[in-house]
Amino acid sequence: MGMNPELQFNEWRRLHTEQTLAAGAGDSTKPSNWDDLFSIHDALSTIPNYISPEAAIAKSAVIVGPVVVLAGTRIMHGAFVEGPSFIGSNCFVGNNAMVRAGSYLSDSTLVGNSSYVNSALLLQNSGVFHFSGLSRSILGLGSRLGSHVVTETTRVDYSAPRDDLKSPFASGQKLGALIGHNTCLSSFVSVAAGVEIGSRCLIGPHTHVDENVPSGKYLYSDTKNTMVDNIKETAIFEMPAATVERNDYKE
Questions:
Q1: Is 3 exposed, middle or buried (0-12, 13-18, 19+ CB in 10 A)?
Q2: Cβ atoms of residues 200 and 215 within 8 Å
């Protein structure tokens, strides 16, 4: 990569990746599009293996190249990173997290403890918090996935794309979600395959998103807790009587 690989990687990003996202990132109301994800995958096929000496990699972390890790990034114990993937500067990959092939993490992004990112694109200052999964998706600038969030990638009806979800499922692609900028998905949210969520959105906890969400919307599941009297006076988890005599364990 020459005398200064960090500068050369920044130039590679400018030419092959970051410029393809400029249009979407410049408009705070517009998420990226599926072509951005495909172009990132094409660009990643050209990267070499490089780990910055200023990156902190735990001894128990596993990196299978080609993978680029830039300065200031921390990859914690038990993490697994599979190439081809790109991890920018000042990123954080938590304990037991997984970054699968085809993933691109822009600067200052986060993959939390026991989370996984599979063939996805994370724009700057975005994060996937602990125990969540982001697959074949784009996460916009400053957006967040809370804990236990999952993006589905397979349509259950295996048919051509619905009119309201204009994504290329007909070509056989497995696709997740397009998530705009400064959007937050709360804990235990699930997103159906091919859904597009705009910018400045808030998705409430325990919500299943199966339709496109325009920018600036708050989507939540309107459910209420119900409390009834216990039909038993005894403990619900009362242990049954033993059926094996103690003497049966003797030789």
A1: exposed
A2: yes
Cα-flanking dihedrals φ and ψ of residue 218, to 5°? -110, 115
pLDDT at residue 72 is higher than 90: yes
Give backbone dihedrals phi and psi of 46, rounded to 5 degrees, phi first: -105, 0
| Other CB atoms within 10 Å distance of the CB of residue 142 | 19
Q: Which residues pair with 93 in a beta bridge?
A: 75, 111
> Can you give the residue range of the structural domain that contains 45?
5-157+167-219
Averaged pLDDT, 38-63: 88
Give a yes or no: residue 235 inside a domain. Answer: no
Q: What is the mean pLDDT of residues 92-118?
A: 94
Tell me the C-alpha distance between 30 and 44, whole Å. Answer: 24
Here the CATH number for the domain that contains residue 119 is 2.160.10.10
What percent of the chain has pLDDT above 90?
49
Long-range contacts of 10-13, Cβ-Cβ distance < 8 Å, separation of 24 or more? 12/47, 13/86, 13/88
Note whether residue 52 is domain-resident. Answer: yes
Q: How many domains does the chain have?
A: 1
Per-residue pLDDT tens for 111-135?
Answer: 999 999 999 999 889 999 999 999 9
Question: Residue for token digits 């790109």?
Answer: 86
